[in-house]
Amino acid sequence: MIGVRIYVSGIVQGVGFRYFTRKLAKELGVKGYVKNLSDGRVLAVAEGESEQIEKFISELRKGPRGAVVRDIKVEEYQPNGEHDSFVIAF
Asked: Which residues are the active-site ones (predicted)?
């Protein structure tokens, strides 16, 4: 089990990116949350098996139609199992 914080920049707010991320996480069995940041980026905090997380990041690089992903920064952390689903945080 690994945990990652994924910072996504580009045209990622107002284009359904958080809903795309939640749907993707549920399909892959990833737990955590996604939220918009005040600087225009989106933050996804995700926990899962290495293979799930790799696929998750790969799909986030593409984003939904209408989004333009310019950069992704990934920080790993030690997961503590606090997430039991994947939600959109506000």
From this structure: 18, 36
Query: Domain 2-82, CATH 2.40.50.320 — does that match?
Result: no
For the chain, what are the domain ranges?
Answer: 2-82
pLDDT per residue as tens digits for the range 13-58: 999 999 999 999 999 999 999 999 999 999 999 999 999 999 999 9
Question: Which residues form the catalytic set?
Answer: 18, 36
In our burial notation (b when 16+ CB lie closer than 10 A, e otherwise), range 18-39 reads bebbbebbeebebbbbbebeee
Number of helices (H) and strands (E), helices first, in the chain?
A: 2, 5
